[in-house]
Amino acid sequence: MSTMDILWLVAAAMLLIAGILASTRVLGGPTTLDRLIALDMSIALTMCGLALWAGTSGDSSVVSAIVAIALVNFVGSIAVARFRVRDDKR
Asked: Where are the transmembrane segments (predicted)?
């Protein structure tokens, strides 16, 4: 196993751990903004995973998918932040 293979595995493991942490925040976030930030983070992790795949395989066809996901995520985040209802105080 080469050094680059070990680096790819470490990067994939870090993305997996970050995805697990983001999903726990989505499920247990106390406010809607916490959940929104966690969803943005999970989409960013998806983009990082695609970039990791592109770097591993040498296939650059997923770069357009990364750009499309980034644009849709930006528009969705702005829409949710603009039209969200304020949380009730507990």
From this structure: 6-24, 36-56, 62-81
Tell me the CATH number for domain 3-83: 1.10.287
Secondary structure class of 10 (helix, strand, coil):
helix
Task: Report yes or no: 22 and 38 within 8 Å, Cβ to Cβ.
Answer: yes
Q: 3-state DSSP call for residue 59? A: coil
The amino acid sitting at 80 is V
pTM: 0.82
Where do the domains of the chain lie?
3-83
Take residue 41 and report the two structure tokens written for it.
Answer: 């983070």
* 1 DSSP 8-state letter: -
Q: How far, in Å, CA of 7 to CA of 11, rounded?
A: 6
